[in-house]
From TrEMBL:
Binding-site list for Mg(2+): D51, D90, E122
Subcellular location: Cytoplasm
UniProt similarity note: Belongs to the PanB family.
Biological classification of the source: Bacteria, Pseudomonadati, Bacteroidota, Sphingobacteriia, Sphingobacteriales
Protein name, UniProt field: 3-methyl-2-oxobutanoate hydroxymethyltransferase
Amino-acid positions noted as binding 3-methyl-2-oxobutanoate in the UniProt annotation, renumbered to this chain: D51, S52, D90, K120
Length: 271
């Protein structure tokens, strides 16, 4: 008799229940099939196909250049691997800021062509109409406030946001608005821990922090950063769980040496 173990898919409802019972939510990025399979198997609740793919997969300086087609390619690879995790995909820069119809069309393309379970958009009040329209089509939406990397040229730096009261108040208002519209969660990026705590306690939907302290309802990191694949990226908020750069470099230079020394393949490794 074969024992088939059912894997229960994480849904936006389960994510909400996790906040309600005080269970922290673990979110990580992934952009390809092999990495997403490992992330999923390790028990991550939400896989974010982030537009950080523009940085870590394509080598761009910012998230701005990645296209909707490229995001769909990454997302469909991740969806094929994710058996348990909820898969959320970033709407890339330029695919939703024009108007709400364009935003809806972009979200529909992501859902239809990748099979993902929801989308994430950066911004608050200014994108309310787009968020409403996407939600009205039955597509789950996650918000993203604080340091929103698609606005890097407006900010000028990647330093902590909302330290001043006016920006903190806008963030509080934006979080409340995203909840009112029907978002299932909101990412809070690089804001003071005290503000993230206040927002997390004032809204019922889960907050997922990155550089926003321990009181968020969940945490997210970019997989390349937490595995130490990127050399020299060591912001204060980042905990590195491995040094894959060193491990991979050692393995690959070992291979190069073996080939040069005519030691690979040996007699047992050939036909
Ligand atoms: O694109 C991304 O990886 C993100 C996370 C940093 C939240 O938006």
């Amino acid at each position: 008799m074969s024992v088939h173990k059912e894997v229960k898919r994480v849904t936006t409802h389960i994510i909400q229940e996790m906040k309600n019972r005080g269970e922290k939510i673990a979110m990580l990025t992934a952009y390809d099939y092999s990495m997403a399979a490992i992330v999923d198997e390790a028990g991550v609740d939400i896989i974010l196909v982030g537009d950080s793919a523009s940085n870590v997969m394509a080598g761009h300086e910012t998230t701005l250049p990645i296209t909707l087609d490229q995001m769909i390619y990454h997302a469909s690879s991740v969806v094929r691997a994710a058996k348990r995790a909820l898969v959320i995909v970033d709407l890339p820069f330029g695919s939703y800021q024009g108007n709400s119809k364009e935003a809806l069309n972009s979200a529909i393309r992501i859902m239809k062509e990748s099979g993902a379970h929801g989308v994430k958009l950066e911004g608050g009040l200014e994108i309310a109409e787009s968020v409403s329209r996407i939600l009205a089509a039955g597509i789950p939406v996650m918000g993203h406030l604080g340091l929103t990397p698609q606005s890097i040229y407006k900010f000028g730096t990647y330093t902590v946001r909302a330290k001043e009261e006016a920006e903190a108040q806008k963030l509080r208002d934006d979080a409340a608005k995203l909840q009112e519209l029907g978002c299932f969660g909101v990412v809070l990026e690089k804001i003071p821990a005290a503000l993230a705590k206040e927002v997390s306690e004032s809204i019922a939907i889960p907050t997922i922090g990155i550089g926003a302290g321990q009181h968020c309802d969940g945490q997210v990191l970019v997989i390349h950063d937490m595995l130490g694949i990127n050399k020299g990226f060591t912001p204060r908020f980042l905990r590195q769980y491995a040094n894959l750069h060193y491990i991979m470099n050692t393995a690959i230079s070992g291979y190069v040496n073996d080939v040069k020394a005519k030691d690979f393949p040996n007699e047992k490794e050939q036909y």
